[in-house]
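User: Teach me something about this protein's shape.
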Amino acid sequence: MSKLIRLADVVDDKIRKEKELEFYEKELRKLHQKMAVLRQEIDVTNIIIDLVKHEKVRDFKKE
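Assistant: First, the predicted structure itself:
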């Protein structure tokens, strides 16, 4: 028995997939923003670590 493909089903499937793609694109944008923030935080942390390692931080207790 052959299966009939209805155009309405194909169109509905296409619309569903487009909505799903839109959802994942939105989530991906959110993730990219979070990644950018985390990279900045890591950069700041690395700068602080570098300053401390090379004693470029003033020790106010000694002054």
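Now, about its shape. The two ends are 91 Å apart (CA to CA). Helices lie at 7-53. If you'd like, I can walk through any region in more detail.
User: That's plenty for now, thanks!
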